[in-house]
Specification:
497 residues; alpha/beta; Leucine Aminopeptidase, subunit E, domain 1; 2 domains; nine-stranded mixed beta sheet; six-stranded mixed beta sheet; 20 strands; binds manganese (II) ion; binds zinc ion
């Protein structure tokens, strides 16, 4: 979507539609106040009639308001004045985007960034407006045979600004657009079915990123290469499937010789559980088991679009987990790249079997920080629902930085303990470590397993099983945690300066 910042007045600015906020109890925002004043009290009159109450997300489209240059004014409820929450704001933006997209408006200008939301800056509100608008407009069509493009879609969004803030807001809109583009890439990869979005497909998309951006270099390792690296754990999972596994590396260079942040994304393009087969109910959703990898591609795309001065390596181990004749069997013991032996007590705990080898592989990039992103456990959904991404780390500063980035971007995480006390649950009678730790604290023991392979670097684990996609009627990938990851990288850059 195109965006622009204007220092015009909403009363005299010409666009298809001016968007202004109203609040509960009939209160007006400054923008609504200007329109009301110019139109001799028209807005107040309408509110008094009770056609709009100000509840977050309520809308009322007005045509030909007297003395207003633009043909339409859209009122949108933003909750309680001075007490609008981030969720109210997102609801309002979503309602506005959907309404405008289905009306004849292709070009709209928004006063909503003047709405007071806690301590959020105007830049934050501009950025969030871009992200939430793109989220509202995203529509999956790739495998629909009758998909018709939207007539007159919303194509341009303007923001009103003071003279001295125009440049900053322009920058915020650009950042928001890049994050939204990254989220859309992640969404699209997530939503594609397992028979299209295979490990080979993800590898091809990563190669595409390398072609699109000079700053990104992509390499793809095949199973034979991984065998040479002795990735016995990763390869044991891919043996259960006929799709060849891939180990994809995307190297983004935006700074000199600085040590990189390595992002490792779980890329199971379908997880049937293997011989420890999952129940059929809802199994289709296991096409989303590659959302960690999708978020890595989305993040690399966003930071490359923004040309961020930082080095980031994206590592994606990608495979299917299926019950073929050569698949892992419960009790099988494999040897990881790190040399540790693993007893596979449950073949459905496959993500950690890929990730442990990918994490060991990450050592070669001499990373300053390693973050893995994985739809790793159903247990994290039990613990945190669909609101927060689970966070565990071997370094509290890194955990704090990710919690902060989550709050800053409103793509939030919540920390769980990674105490050594839990490690004993992974004891095995026959190998160095078991791949499951019993029914208690399933998300923590999954992270404990990974922790055995990350002792050489500063590392955090993000369990996105609850946040990467929505179930039910609105089934679809969310694009999370691209905003969190980009924010973390942006904060690193500003902390350094
Ligand atoms: N991909 C799943 C985790 C998952 C399950 C994500 C449901 C979203 C919804 C992962 O590979 C898995 O199967 N984990 C097991 C681990 C268990 C066997 C220790 C799980 O969570 O049941
Ligand atoms: Mn599984
Ligand atoms: Zn899985």
């Amino acid at each position: 979507m195109q965006y622009f910042v204007t220092t015009n007045s909403p009363a005299t600015h010409l666009t298809d539609c001016i968007v202004v906020a109203v609040f509960e109890q009939g209160e007006l925002s400054p923008g609504a106040g200007i329109i009301d004043l110019q139109s001799n009290g028209y807005i107040k009159k309408i509110i008094e009639r009770g056609d709009i109450s100000g509840k977050a997300g309520q809308t009322l489209l007005l045509q030909d308001v007297a003395n207003i240059t633009s043909p339409r004014v859209l009122l949108v409820g933003c909750g309680k004045k001075e007490k609008t929450t981030e969720n109210d704001f997102n609801k309002a933006i979503t309602a506005v985007a959907q309404l405008l997209n289905e009306s004849g408006c292709t070009d709209a200008s928004s006063c909503l960034t003047e709405v007071v939301i806690n301590t959020r800056t105007t830049s934050w509100k501009v950025r969030q407006s871009m992200i939430t608008t793109e989220t509202a407009l995203y529509k999956y069509t790739q495998t629909k045979s009758d998909a018709k493009p939207q007539l007159n879609p919303l194509a341009r969004l303007g923001f009103f600004a003071q003279d001295n803030e125009a440049a900053e807001l322009e920058q915020a809109a650009q950042t928001g657009q890049a994050i939204a583009n990254g989220m859309n890439l992640a969404r699209e990869l997530g939503n594609l079915p397992g028979n299209i979005c295979t490990p080979t497909y993800i590898a091809d998309q990563a190669v595409e990123l390398g072609k699109r951006f000079d700053s990104v270099t992509t390499t793809v390792l095949e199973e034979a290469d991984m065998a040479e690296l002795k990735m016995g754990s990763f390869l044991s999972v891919s043996r259960g499937s006929r799709e060849p596994a891939k180990l994809i590396t995307m190297n983004y260079k935006g700074a000199g010789d600085e040590r990189p942040v390595v992002l490792v994304g779980k890329g199971l393009t379908f997880d049937a559980g293997g011989i420890s087969l999952k129940p059929s109910q809802g199994m289709d959703e296991m096409k989303y088991d590659m959302c960690g990898s999708a978020s890595v591609l989305g993040t690399i795309a966003a930071i490359a679009e923004l040309n961020l001065p930082i080095n980031v390596v994206g590592v994606v181990p990608s495979s299917e987990n299926l019950p073929d004749g050569d698949a892992n069997k419960p009790g099988d013991i494999v040897t990881s790249m790190a040399g540790k032996t693993i007893e596979i007590l449950n073949t459905d705990a496959e993500g950690r079997l890929l990730l442990c080898d990918a994490l060991t592989y990450s050592e070669r990039f001499n990373p300053e920080i390693v973050i893995d992103i994985a739809t790793l456990t159903g247990a994290i959904i039990v613990a945190l629902g669909n609101q927060a991404t689970g966070l565990m780390a071997n370094n509290q500063q890194l955990a704090d930085d990710l919690l902060q980035a989550g709050n800053d971007s409103f793509d939030r995480t919540w920390q769980l303990p990674l105490w050594e006390d839990y490690q004993q649950q992974l004891d095995s009678n026959f190998a160095d470590i078991a791949n499951v730790g019993g029914k208690e604290a399933g998300s923590v023991t999954a992270a404990c397993f990974l922790a055995r392979f990350t002792e050489k670097f500063t590392w955090a684990h993000l369990d996105i099983a609850g946040t990467a996609w929505n179930s039910g009627k609105a089934k679809g990938a969310t694009g999370r945690p691209v905003p969190l990851l980009v924010q973390y990288l942006l904060n690193r850059i500003s902390d350094k300066n």
